[in-house]
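User: Please predict the structure of the protein below. I'd like the answer in structure-token form so I can feed it into my own downstream comparison script.

Assistant: Understood. Taking the following sequence of 202 residues as input:
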Amino acid sequence: MKTIKSIFLIAIVSLFITSCSNNDTEVVPVVAKKAVNIHAPVTTDYTVNPPAESGDFTKFSFSTGTVVTGNNWDVAFRGTTIIFNGGAKVGLTDEPERTGVGAFSLQTGTFGNIVTAPNDADFKQDKSGALALPKSTWYTYNRQTHKISVVAGKVLVIKTSNGHYAKMEILSYYKDEDSTKDPRYYSFNYTYNPNVGDKNLK
């Protein structure tokens, strides 16, 4: 009788462990969202050459889908400057500390067709003296109208501060996606994979 009870108890424990194990490895669906009017103000001093920029960066977290103030940011914006939470400080005024493992890879193609993050070797990080994403990479500037236009077909694939993967398509640099309105308001599509290390982006 004791033997039967022992076998039954072992079976129950094994079932419980297996159930927990399955729950731990459950794949969570990829999140697809749109961020609108992420304000990225900047103060520019034109009395020096080149002009000097200052002011806090607006920090965004893909896991929360919101602007954040802590160290849990993945990408940050100030004017046309975009930085990532990994690597080292570039050397900009009022630049936030890098506290994560974030990196970025610029991919060419349509947002819907970029379905997998590239190899780790394709990712870059900010470093002293150099942005991972140079300003002129994602937009063009019209000197006559002073307007910023987003370059089509450029998708930012991002390794987040805590090792997840996301992709981002910048849609506009103007409030309400209207170039007649105020600048320094980012709108972008993004997908975020909540499963750490999973490179699936669809």
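That's the full token string. Helices lie at 2-24, 135-138.
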